[in-house]
Amino acid sequence: SYLYHFACYSLWIWFSYIIVGSTLASIVVASGVLNVHVKIKNQRVLSALTASITSAKVWRGGRWSQIESKLLVPGDKVQVRGDWLLPCDMVLLTGQCISDESALTGEAMPVRKIAAPKDPRAKYLAEKEGAKHTLFAGTKVLETQVAGDKLAALTALVTATGITTSKGKLVACILFPQKTRFKYDQELPVVIALLGVYSL
User: Fold this and answer.
1) Whole-angstrom Cα distance, residue 146 to residue 79?
2) Of the candidates 72, 101, 73, 108, which has an alpha carbon nearest to the alpha carbon of residue 85?
3) What pLDDT digit, counting tens, does each position of 108-143 carry?
4) 103 near 179, Cβ under 8 Å?
5) Burial group, residue 38, by CB count within 10 angstroms (0-12, 13-18, 19+)
């Protein structure tokens, strides 16, 4: 649309409407530059929001190892510590903790998470009944507790990483929003067809 308006105002300048055409063309160019600047700024903010990398203790090769969180994969068993910004979705295996989910849900009150039941018949759904057992990416663990000992380490199982996490899906919705369909737009082809029939 910027190019269309700029082309129209360029024609005005060509046909000697120099003052009006140049003024409107300048406004179009300035609006386009400002729009690009705002979009780039928002993308940088979003990139900084999603590019948080922390360390994690993971059980691999029969021992606990310290690795970067970006190397975690679903199925990894990790230790959950207090004051930790979670890099991925995981389900608690032992203990309980207090989680701050305000960055993800907007809920100001901390949420208590408990270990998932050790029942092989139980069906795990992270965003439904299993939410009370799930630590979501982008949220922060405030306090941990295992069998009355606040210093003991919790263990959790990584269930999702990257774009498949709750945070990743939220970012994907921001980057690629679904197109809004209005009722008027859906009925417009029918109206045009009826007008075409009526014109005959």
Assistant:
1) 12
2) 101
3) 888 899 888 887 767 777 677 778 888 998 889 998
4) no
5) exposed
